[in-house]
Specification:
By secondary structure, the protein is mainly α. It has helices at residues 2-29, 33-58, 65-98.
């Protein structure tokens, strides 16, 4: 039973590392901030969660497991907020330079023009 759990932990850690690597490649290769933000959040967070799950399985019975759970929880709670904030700023900054549109959905107006 112990061997099966160690294989599962190793597979999860390797899959998580692979997803984190694809996120890093996406950050380097994508052309604009909005595309990079997508690569920086989704695969990176899922990769980190997989690595943490693998580490929890490997460290079962250890006191440090709760720290790993907290890291995963705080990452899952803060990553969407950070991505949303960066996305809004990037959209506003690039709209005027790249011609993304004359009227944006994120403009704050009280009524129709």
């Amino acid at each position: 039973m112990s061997t099966v759990l160690e294989v599962v932990a190793a597979v999860l850690i390797l899959l998580g590392a692979l997803l984190a690597m694809t996120a890093a490649i996406g950050i380097v290769r994508f052309p604009d901030t909005l595309s990079r933000m997508h690569a920086a959040t989704k695969p990176q967070v899922i990769g980190l969660v997989l690595v943490l799950i693998g580490a929890v399985i490997r460290l079962r019975g250890n006191v440090d497991i709760w720290m790993l759970v907290l890291v995963g929880l705080f990452t899952l709670l803060t990553a969407p907020v950070i991505a949303h904030t960066v996305g809004r700023v990037a959209y506003r900054e690039q709209r005027s330079r790249d011609g993304l549109g004359i009227v944006g959905d994120l403009d704050r107006r009280d009524g129709p023009e």
